[in-house]
Amino acid sequence: MWKYCLRRxxxxxxxxxxxxxxVFTLAKMMPGDAISGEIDPLNTDPVYIExxxxxxxxxxxxxxxxxxxxxDFIQGDFGRSVRYKMPVSDLIGEKxxxxxxxxISALIITYFLxxxxxxxxxxxxxxxxxxxxGAANYFGMAIPSFVAGVFAIYFFSFHLGIFPSNGSxxxxxxxxxxxxxxxxxxxxxxxxxxxxxxSTASYTQFLRNDIIENSRKDFVRTARAKGTSNRxxxxxxxxxNSIIPLITFLGFDIxxxxxxxxxxxxxFTYPGIGQLFVQSVQTNDYAVLxxxxxxxxxxxxxxxxxxxxxxxxxxxxxxxx
Length: 321
Hints:
Keywords: Cell membrane, Membrane, Transmembrane, Transmembrane helix, Transport. The protein is mostly helical and 321 residues long. Helix content is 75%, strand content 1%.
């Protein structure tokens, strides 16, 4: 296991190097630069703009700019945000807490509902309850997240007034108090529900179909022939094999903790990594944009590794050599 993990981690290094080249190239191909996102070119002396570009190294050859950027990046210096006037690492760290809180809340909702509905639909297939769950799942897979977010804000925030429509906490509360954390929980429930319920649909269908398929296999017939109780057959034999795909999905969900909430955070004006990414694109904040893109890419590789490891852990037939 350790040798496999070490090989995979070493294999990430050249891949991250190639990703960094692609990220840098795409950033340079975008119109404008960091200066154009910080000042208004129409109301600023062109000579001053050119002097600033020369001072910041934007006129240097691309390979020199890349070498300078990747060298600083490896040392933990991600640059400085031109919009927020602060180091990118501090800015990301400030927003990351909210995104992780939102992602974990959405995952709890997703796995709880998908296990509950998937097990029910799998044990009682082709019943009225199964058809209702299936219809709800297909509706959830068909509706876009931005549409669900807008309807959730209108119904639960504006019409019923149950949840706030934006923000992550009441700014009048003192950090660290019980009221502060209750306010954070109150603000995260609605976006977490939107993010979690849309993921629940596919997970429920996966679990339901696997339970039905495994219930027809030979080892289940053998267990029934030996007089094993139906409850034990489902909980020990069928469910144990059916949850393997869902557990391995947990590795890929590491990516959704951070990057999957981009649309949801933007709709709910939730101050997290997703909203920061959209704002960095709109304001040409290239240092933030490049750092976040590299972070998302790294998370994808780590998520794949975790998924492979979990697959070997939950399924003893798999051996990672």
